[in-house]
Write a structure and sequence with these properties.
By secondary structure, the chain is of the alpha/beta class. It contains ten helices and 17 strands.
Length: about 350
């Protein structure tokens, strides 16, 4: 049997669940008999039926599961969460063959679902298109394997390597670097990440909303480092359009949609923040700046992905230098801007 083709179809189905399934992983499932796909399913929304359940429910009643092979992108669960264990259902229905893309990194599942299937006499093949599955669920995988959020660093810079004029111009428009297409791209990134992270200087300089107002999507949680709480409460980062987490060294407090979390600024700040965000269940963070914050992530190797927009026609000649990171020669165009995309291997 062509395992890769069937698993590829399952991966395509899995993608249809995004972003409604978050913070759960995207999962797809196909059921095959005599070389033909006869049923499909995917995890459609958080709290809803899992991919295996939907595929089994779509299976024609006259077909015996024992004559079929199930392909599922992620190891079937074996614990009671918002839904019953999928491994129990697969066993109950009488499947004899199950092909799995990747083992589930969640310690509640990891390997236990596979073991239960095997102990029931089901033949299990795992690791089919495993890297493709891990790439698809990069937030989920990084969160469970590294015990921290997936960090995506983003900045925009001029052709001569500046991210801002200094001093700031009176008109904010005079400091804009990327075009409208790039701005839409960034707002889509915001909608795909659980939180967005900025430093105090960026907030004081730009008073950003940090929302997804240019696209359809949920606003991310806003994260701010403000050691002495110097950002005024009337700034947009404190409005009620989204929740806000403020890391500081003065107080632990929660007021309405704002959570203040006290850190020890004599220790590694990013490690402390990562530990807190992990405990809060925040799987992915878009880091939008400024340069000091991004350079700190780079220096500590606390990053997974980098997206850089460069306006090839704009020169500031002086100002705030872009983060210190060597860009590759390959890029794609977003409008008239160059988009550089890097992953931390």
């Amino acid at each position: 049997m062509d395992h890769n083709n069937y698993m590829q179809r399952a991966l395509e189905l899995a993608k249809q669940g995004w972003p409604a399934v978050a913070p759960n992983p995207m999962v797809g499932c196909v059921i095959v008999k005599e070389g033909k796909i006869i049923s499909e399913g995917y995890h459609q929304k958080f709290g809803g039926s899992h991919a295996e359940v939907n595929a089994i429910e779509n299976l024609p009643a006259y077909i015996s599961p024992g004559d079929c092979t199930m392909y599922v992108t992620l190891e079937p669960c074996n614990h009671h969460g918002k839904t019953p264990p999928c491994s129990d259902l697969i066993i109950k229905k009488g499947f004899k063959h199950v092909v799995i893309g990747s083992k589930d990194p969640n310690p509640l599942v990891s390997g236990k679902g596979i073991k239960k299937l095997q102990e029931s006499g089901i033949k299990v093949l795992q690791g089919v298109l495993e890297m493709e599955e891990k790439k698809l669920n990069k937030h989920f995988v990084t969160f469970h394997e590294k015990k921290r959020p997936y960090y995506l660093l983003k900045w925009a810079m001029t052709a001569d390597g500046f991210i801002s004029k200094c001093p700031l111009p009176a008109k904010r428009e005079d400091n804009l670097i990327s075009g409208k297409n790039s701005q839409l791209f960034v707002h889509k990134l915001r909608s795909e990440n659980r939180a967005i992270f900025v430093g105090k200087n960026t907030v004081l300089a730009d008073d950003p909303s940090l929302t997804t107002r240019l696209v359809k999507g949920k606003n991310p949680i806003r994260i701010l480092i403000d050691r002495k709480l110097g950002v005024p409460l009337n700034f947009k980062i404190y409005n009620k359009e989204a929740s806000t987490i403020v890391f500081n060294d003065l107080k632990d407090e929660e007021k309405d949609h704002v959570k203040y979390i006290k850190l020890n600024f004599d220790e590694n700040i990013l490690k402390q923040i990562s530990d807190v965000l992990y405990k809060l269940g925040i799987q992915s963070v878009l880091v939008e700046g400024g340069a000091l914050l991004i350079n700190d992530f780079l220096k500590n190797n606390f990053w997974d992905e980098i997206v850089v927009f460069q306006n090839p026609k704009l020169y500031f000649k002086e100002g705030v230098k872009a983060p210190d990171f060597p860009l590759k020669n390959s890029f794609e165009l977003v409008g008239e801007d160059k988009l550089f995309h890097c992953f931390n291997e």
